[in-house]
Amino acid sequence: MSACPICTHGTLRPGVTSVTLERGQLTLVIKSVPARVCDNCGEQFVDEAVSARLLEVADGAAKAGTQVEVRSYAA
Ligand SMILES: [Zn+2]
Q: What is the full DSSP assignment across 13-45?
């Protein structure tokens, strides 16, 4: 576990968050995204690999013409 870079006092612990991605006409909400959450200030950090996956999902949804969608994160 690493220290929180925002408040420097908290510890980052595994958790989940929701991420909203907007791209053109698309608004995509992805729930249950794995993240590390600071136990002091509550700041949430999504790993780079997860962010990259979210962007791929947003690209796919944008190309499919989706406008608004809520889905759960799937690795
Ligand atoms: Zn913090």
A: EEEEEEEEEEETTEEEEEEEEEEEEETTT--EE
